[in-house]
histidine kinase
Amino acid sequence: MKVAVVGRLRAWTGQLVRPSGPLPPLTRRGQLFDLFLALGLGLAAFLDADGGDAEYRGPTYFPNIEVPAVPLPGAEPFDAHEPDQATLMLVMLLVVMPLVLRRRYPLTMLWAVLILAPLVSDFDAALRLSFYACVIAAYSAAVYSPFRIPALVSLPFAAILYTGLSEDAVPTVPDNAVPFLILIPIAVVADGLRRWKRRADEDRARLSTLESEQAEALRRAAEHERARIARELHDVVTHNVSVMVIQAGAARKVLDAAPGQAREALLAVEAGGRAAMAELRHVMGLLTMDSDGPDPAAGADLTPQPGLDRLDALVQRVRDTGVPVELTIAGSPRPLPSGVELTAYRVVQEALTNTVKHAAGAAARVLVEYSPEELRVEVTDSGGTPGAAAAAGNRRGLIGLRERLAVYGGTLHTRPRVTGGYRLTAQIPLEAM
């Protein structure tokens, strides 16, 4: 039981001496204000005490007759304890000096004022000045001190101390000062409420602006995501459907004359359709992913995103349409980030799709060159006549490629060849990978 009581007392004592927060930041303007406040208060109190009447007035037994105050030779002054001016000035400076550090050490300075009060209790002027300094120090301790409970407990102790020292220590309030003592606090409180309301309105406006910015950011993110999905669908669908259209047209032309060739073309159409469906399922699977993982219904059909290791299959599908394609790998192939490989794959896919659509009868050449600094992808064709699907082109594929490459710091250059045909070159830096 005793151990528990001692533990509770120790915990309660620890809470008393534990600061509730840091001191507010102290500015140079605040330090100068405190210095001038202390000096001004001390000077005002000294001038008020120095202007008082120190002449001795003897007792009078005729209350209706005015007796002039005449100093008697050899008589002591009215206040035998009144010090000379130098001593009074020194005592008053000592009383107000704690106010200079009232914001840096608020509770310590309050107790410094309280300890000095009994030492100057023989001098009424200094004791009254000490009371004024105590009021300011008490306010500073209540507002600034991180030790809240000791600061609040010190306030009634200060009141009891000055009440017991001397009645003259606590000044009386003249009747003509009462309206000011009522109206000035009301004005201060009203101004504080007005400032608080203005800050609350500013905070609400700031919060509303922040919410609007967040909503706009979400909207932009959704637009970017829709654009990314559109590019992905464009890359997946356009290539495979273009190949299927070419193969179906070839099958139609040779259906009666060469049924075997028509059958091979239809098989290529079927393979292209299956490839298109597999990649579409992959994209749609990404769209249906939730926090628990991919959609179980689509998971079985998802395949990894294509990379450079699947260029042979891509080139072969284009060859099956009747377009001669030569694939060359230069340099030393090495593993690259999946995003880089996907981007390079999409560059080749888009370039060959454009060759099929815009250069019927042309031959194409694909070059993938590895170097220590970059990955270079170049697709050229020998030129041909635009196909039926060329009129539907809107250059969205090239725009999507540039955006894909920009993610990895890459560039895309497209230009006609001097000897005829078209050249597409993509460069992706690899120094940081």
